[in-house]
Q: What sequence folds into this?
């Protein structure tokens, strides 16, 4: 029997319409290159998004066209999110911090018809001039007074284009499975691959993302997403927060600057924020040095890489709760998020931090499982390690422009329809997932898996160790043993043995590194993650001391 319910399509434009109606006076505050503190309301935002939809139409952009953005977190980027997807085009966010050849590859591969570019990113676009032959126009996200000189053809000014358009626009309705956004995963090897989000996946992700045990986004909150809008849609915040009517504070290009973040958060009374561990270390260092606080900040979500214990503990001293989350570009990114369960209310101190150090529980909508080498499911006992697989309506089933034939590069799902995350994890009986490694970074010592993340987390809790990476190196008896490569704080000295003694109480005997090597810096990928592949290559001939 068929149900008798309206088959309304889940449209991104519905968020905007709801927000304008219900939260017209809510504020969006942004730092931009042309204005250190721009401030307007949801009403202005909705009006300008409609003007922008008219701009796109006038420019000749059509349903399904990819519209590239190279921009920071600010109100103009937000207008693009809604106007582009709302008109049936695909908002393709590009990370301006990638290597120029990757940016060129991505723009060409996605066949971006127009590019909307922050003023600060224009030098990069100028440098890519010869690669942009198929791009019909470049729109600089600024006003006429701040337009840079350019050697490119067909460069236009965002504010001038907007001012010429009226603010009436009827958002169209179409199939909710239509592509709404696109984001390329950078990867350490091979070419970046395009993940394609839909209106449906984005809406369901926003609904799940605002649940109380996930981000608890609400009209009473003020949210500052530090995670960039070019990075998996700023983890969905631009949709979830607008949907519920939160005040948004956008840090623009000043994302990694502790002083700017503290001032913005304090002045705008930010209650909730999200970002990668590196950002929080910068903010915490600034707070410690300046003796400042952020009284309003109730909680932060940390993800993108394992959250060191010290971040959780240091935030507690400022009265801020840390919620760790795990996800990927391919999972939109929400997969698991930390929150306590009934019966755990009394957890305190180290026992509480122990659970917070895990990557959290599966969010409703996402199924998680761990499997062995034969794709057989492993128990949720907190001990068994296995390849982490996920399934759900906001998980990628393929990559743009690549063959989806099972077993090919463009098909990330197995024969049972599970997406292979490339992560290795344990899951405790009560459902808390803990990432122990990337599949390709696993250290296998005498047949036992050793978690490199566990070693790294223990190492960076040493006050003199700034950053650390554990890799497997050849060992004649055990095949592989862990080697720790560490960067010390300026002017610090430590011996290999001192570090090993420091780690001993916190690690299993077989997880203790056999040696510690000190380096000036560790290699990183363009998105700032440890590049273990490069590190393993530079230690390929390393031999442990006899
Ligand atoms: P993102 O851009 O959001 O980091 P990517 O697709 O680039 O997404 O990277 C996803 C990978 O980052 C995951 O597969 C996992 O290895 C790592 N990751 C994300 N969150 C965490 C976390 N909380 N702890 C450990 N690793 C994480």
A:
């Amino acid at each position: 029997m068929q149900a008798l319910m309206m088959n309304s399509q889940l449209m991104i434009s519905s968020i905007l319409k709801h927000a304008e109606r219900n939260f017209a006076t809510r504020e969006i505050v942004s730092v931009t290159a042309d204005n250190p503190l721009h401030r307007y309301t949801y009403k202005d935002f909705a009006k300008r998004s409609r003007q922008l939809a008219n701009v796109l139409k006038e420019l000749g952009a059509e349903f399904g066209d990819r519209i590239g953005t190279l921009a920071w977190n600010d109100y103009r980027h937000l207008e693009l999110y809604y106007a582009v997807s709302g008109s049936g085009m695909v908002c393709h966010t590009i990370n301006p911090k990638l290597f120029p050849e990757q940016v060129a590859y991505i723009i060409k591969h996605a066949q971006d018809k127009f590019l909307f570019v922050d003023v600060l990113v224009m030098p990069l676009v100028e440098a890519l001039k010869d690669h942009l032959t198929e791009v019909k126009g470049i729109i600089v996200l600024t006003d006429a007074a701040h337009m840079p000189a350019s050697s490119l053809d067909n460069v236009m000014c965002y504010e001038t284009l907007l001012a010429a358009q009226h603010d009436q626009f009827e958002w169209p309705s179409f199939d909710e499975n239509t592509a709404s956004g696109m984001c390329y995963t950078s990867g350490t090897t091979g070419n970046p691959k395009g993940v394609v989000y839909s209106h449906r996946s984005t809406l369901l992700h926003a609904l799940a993302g605002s649940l109380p045990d996930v981000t608890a986004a609400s009209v009473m909150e003020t949210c500052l997403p530090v995670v960039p809008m070019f990075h998996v849609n700023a983890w969905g915040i631009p949709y979830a927060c607008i949907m519920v009517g939160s005040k948004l504070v956008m840090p623009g290009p000043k994302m990694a600057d502790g002083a700017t973040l503290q001032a913005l958060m304090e002045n705008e009374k930010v209650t909730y924020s999200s970002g990668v561990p590196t950002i929080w270390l910068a903010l915490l260092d600034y707070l410690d040095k300046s003796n400042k606080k952020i009284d309003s900040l109730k909680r932060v979500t940390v993800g993108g890489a394992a959250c060191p214990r010290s971040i959780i503990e240091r935030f507690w001293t400022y009265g801020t709760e840390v919620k760790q989350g795990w996800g990927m570009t391919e999972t939109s990114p929400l997969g698991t998020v930390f929150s306590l369960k009934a019966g755990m209310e009394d957890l305190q101190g180290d026992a509480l931090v122990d659970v917070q150090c895990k990557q959290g529980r599966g969010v409703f909508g996402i199924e998680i499982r761990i499997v062995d080498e034969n794709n057989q499911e492993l128990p949720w006992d907190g001990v068994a390690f296995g390849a982490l697989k996920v399934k759900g309506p906001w998980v990628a089933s393929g990559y743009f422009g690549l063959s989806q034939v099972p077993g090919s590069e463009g098909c990330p799902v197995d024969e049972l329809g599970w997406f292979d995350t490339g992560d290795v994890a344990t899951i405790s009986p009560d459902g808390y997932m803990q990432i122990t490694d990337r599949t390709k970074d696993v250290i296998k010592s005498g047949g036992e898996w050793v978690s490199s993340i566990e070693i790294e987390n223990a190492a960076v809790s040493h006050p003199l160790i700034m950053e650390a990476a554990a890799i497997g190196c050849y060992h004649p008896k055990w095949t592989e043993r862990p080697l720790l490569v560490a960067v010390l704080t300026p002017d610090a000295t430590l011996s290999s043995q001192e570090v090993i003694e420091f780690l001993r109480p916190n690690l299993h005997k077989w997880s203790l590194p056999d040696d510690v090597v000190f380096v000036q810096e560790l290699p990183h990928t363009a998105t700032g993650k440890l590049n273990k592949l490069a590190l393993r290559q530079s230690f390929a001939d390393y031999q442990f001391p006899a």
Notes: The pocket of adenosine-5'-diphosphate is lined by residues 185, 231-232, 303-306, 324, 326-329, 333, 359, 421-423, 435, 438, 527 (CB under 6 Å). The two ends are 73 Å apart (CA to CA). The chain is about 25% helix and 25% strand. Residues 361-438 form a domain with the Luciferase; domain 3 fold (CATH 2.30.38.10).
